[in-house]
Amino acid sequence: MFAxxxxxxxxxxxxxxxxxxxxxxxxxxxIGASMTTLTVLHVLSGDPLPGRSGTLxxxxxxxxxxxxxxxxxxxxxQLTLTDGQNLLRAGRADHQALMxxxxxxxxxxxxxxxxxxxxxxxxxxxxxxxxxxxxxYGQGWAAADDEARVRDVVINSELNQRLFAGADSVGRTLRVxxxxxxxxxxxxxxxxxxxxxxxxxxSYGYTEQVFLPLQTALGLHMDHxxxxxxxxxxxxxxxxxxxxxxxxxxxxxxxxxSPAQVAAYREFLVRYSQQQKSLGxxxxxPNVRLRDVRQWLAYERVVPNDVRLQTxxxxxxxxxxxxxxxxxxxxxxLRRASELGIRRALGASKRALFTQLLVESGVVGLVGGAGGxxxxxxxxxxxxxxxxxxxxxxHLDPTMLLVTFLLAVGASLxxxxxxxxxxCQITPALQLKSN
Amino acid sequence: MxxxxxxxxxxKHRLATTLIALEIALACAVxxxxxxxxxxxxxxxxIDSGVDEAALATVQLTGYDSAQAADVDxxxxxxxxxxxxxxxxxxxxxxxxxxxxxxxxxxxDAAGKHFxxxxxxxxxxxxxxxxxxxxxxxxxxxxxxxxxxxxxFMPDQGSVQITQALAEHLWPGADPLGKEFWMLKSHFRVVxxxxxxxxxxxxxxxxxxxxxxxxxxxxxxxxxxxSYLLRASPGDxxxxxxxxxxxxxxxxxxxxxxxxxxxxxxxxxxxxxKNDRAMAGMLVGVITAMLLVTxxxxxxxxxxxxxxxxRQIGVRRAIGATRRDILHxxxxxxxLIVTGGIVLGMALAFALNLTLxxxxxxxxxxxxxxxxxxxxxxxxxxxxxxxxxxxxxAVPPVVATRSA
Lengths: 435, 404
Hints:
The complex is a heterodimer of chains A (435) and B (404). Chain A has 2 domains: 2-45 and 304-434, no CATH class; 53-300, no CATH class. Chain A is built from 14 helices and 13 strands. In chain A, the strands form 2 sheets. In chain A, strands 1, 2, 3, 4, 5, 6, 7, 8, 9, 12 and 13 form an 11-stranded mixed β-sheet that branches. Helix content of chain A is 49%, strand content 15%. The longest helix of chain A has 35 residues, at 350-384.
């Protein structure tokens, strides 16, 4: 029966090519626009560390004074060095890492390469096991090395390719900012997107090429990159290079596996704030937050507003296209009132007619969906050539491919429902008589 | 033209009529809001920077210690001033549409109780305000003894020029000259008012805050170094900048020239607004496609109705209706349906605007967008229905005598 309906549908669609083309075009344009924007939204709001992000938390405390310079109730988005080190040494979580961004000059041994600057991350040992960074060679440094200020470095595969042509460089020496470091590990491609652990350096398309022990880097006065928010009198951190003790400029991440641990850690943060207040370091009442990766990204509004806006408008456009298709489909079905009347008179049930008409609208949806897919690919190609930092990420993945087709067929079946129902309401006798 | 019979006929096609009206309503809501967003973006892109962008460029140096600052600056300035065609070189921490180094919150009282907002401090060396070409509309420009040496991120006191937008925000209606404000313990006195001076990052701020900037004169030092403002004649500027970068590479070979941040202000401006331009372009695309689909939908349905009513049209023609009558019939019918859609569309446009205001800090939709949107859709409807209506008018009276 389905094959027969399909045949009927194709015949009917062929009979009025302009109207069919119009419906297909409307669906294709609507699907193309909404799938392009939805894919961008999907890519940008993706999970940076699938499988791990649910257990990673970002503690926030409020060490600021009451100057009123910072309106709002939210604690600052980063930590001071003292608080960061205190929380790190307290070691209340399974894994914890303190970090900040920087940029450092790399001075290659070979005279054929000029010195160049790369993005760096100054962090502590747990960074690698906590975030599950994949290693091509070697591994991260040990926790004991943090305090010992060892001169170990982890580099990424891109830098390894550039300096050592991709060979196993573990144990070799790398000159960073006039200091010799020993390479202990080479990361395989690792580029969490968004760059959730430090959003100040840009949310998308940002990767560090070297990872240095935090204490070592600070001891060597390596350049700090990122945001620092200060109260108090701003100037004069370590050696004048870094923000002062009245500035927040470090990120701290912890791994907590169970809700009980999360509750305990939150409790710990409150107690820590109280203790610091009684010591006179903190002025405000304890004001803590403990967000997981998803909550943190949502709070920081990582996905650009423009992208959300575009998605909304594209769906508005899809709605216009669908209403348009409903109208055209209605016209098309009602035009065949006499044909449908004859079928009814010959014994076809309303249900059979309804199915037949839905098959027809499904065919339109399928063709429109295919057109929409092509348009979405074109749209994504256009997005990739746009000058935004997320442009290279705009690719259609299998999930979105499936969503596109379901959306197209679902939308046109939905669009076909009303006209098909309306067309089935005809009185066969009347239709037969009028001819 | 009698409207009554048209309405009576439309009642027979209630579903189709409702659908077209609904499509027009949705199109109206999206059209008004999208046009409003486009106009917002275009306004933002055409912001008056208050400086002579066409004649300005910047060169940014990094990768040296603050102890080396005086030495690096001396050699860099000498090299830059020697480039043929350079009219002036000065030091300026933040650059309009470029590097941002002086964003800070201020208060209008010493105790720090009255928050004045987050503003941009343009800390500039001698000659930088003149080089910018910012217009002083009240008070005075900085004098030689206003430029103090300083340690720390910013001078902790000084006589400053502030933009009129910031003055109006801090002291509405009052004369800003002689007024004071504080940044933590640092204390500043207003001696001049600038017509405009845009923030380095205007896109990150709401429309009224984009001009919240002050010019703070200072002597170059460890925290005012490596950020140069070049002035040359507009036609010559790209060549001057190229030569300047080449001669710096020789004069200060040990430091890093930040080539990504060293550009003409015209280029920096284009870069700052690239996302707005892309967004406006995307919206224009969506609007065009939407209007096209809507118009084609109207053509499709009108054609269907004309075909369906061929006999009636023939009868009307046979009993005396002119071609013009038939044409007007379909035009009026379309006008009525579109009007119905627009009435609903205006309500939808407002609802959509309220939603956007809630989530995207968009201002309220100005009322004049509604009649403009209505006119556009009426025109679109008439244009779309013209073809089918002309075909209807061409139906000969003899059709009435034939059976279908």
